[in-house]
Amino acid sequence: xxxxxxxxxxxxxxxxxxxxxxxxxxxxxxxxxxxxxxxxxxxxxxxxxxxxxxxxxxxxxxxxxxxxxxxxxxxxxxxxxxxxxxxxxxxxxxxxxxxxxxxxxxxxxxxxxxxxxxxxxxxxxxxxxxxxxxxxxxxxxxxxxxxxxxxxxxxxxxxxxxxxxxxxxxxxxxxxxxxxxxxxxxxxxxxxxxxxxxxxxxxxxxxxxxxxxxxxxxxxxxxxxxxxxxxxxxxxx
Length: 237
Prior knowledge:
With about 240 residues, this protein is α+β, with helices and mostly antiparallel strands. Helices cover about 30% and strands about 30% of the residues. The strands form two sheets. It has a nine-stranded antiparallel beta sheet, sandwiched between helices. A two-stranded antiparallel sheet has the order 1-3. The protein is globular.
């Protein structure tokens, strides 16, 4: 259940530099002002559609994923631990995110019936800022109930899932499904060459398995792309 308000990625390959930028809390009641991230991400100003086709875009995405994964010296598990030390509760998700030019770990924590967002520096492990995250639709109580239902009897925490997923690559996201019936944590990893993979970590056993639903979605997306290409070719004739 990702409750991050800002979820953004850099459109082209990222270059990690020593520049400065400010990561700001974007919503909710400010508890501690967000500080600058020590890890900066720069867009190389390539356009998404540079005329080089899908192969070039895929290469750009892989380069971006690799750069961000390598820049995050603090692991997902370490970020979750740091966030919980600052704001005790139940960690529900963690995601490596680009925000205002800086790379941050965004960790969602449920404390009682209140949601908190905690940003952790992926370079130092220090907490950059915390604030209450309120849903604009007023569904906070319902969200909390779904999470509590999903995690009832669970013995595998988000931190445990992040550690388990690290055997498959660099963990960039840990998330609990938001339908309240989840039997596993969803974990996203980036491989050495930038390839992204998704895994399920069982809530009770901690067993890691490939996310077959993601494979099915990828195949469906490819089929849609193929149909679009065929339609365009037909309209050109």
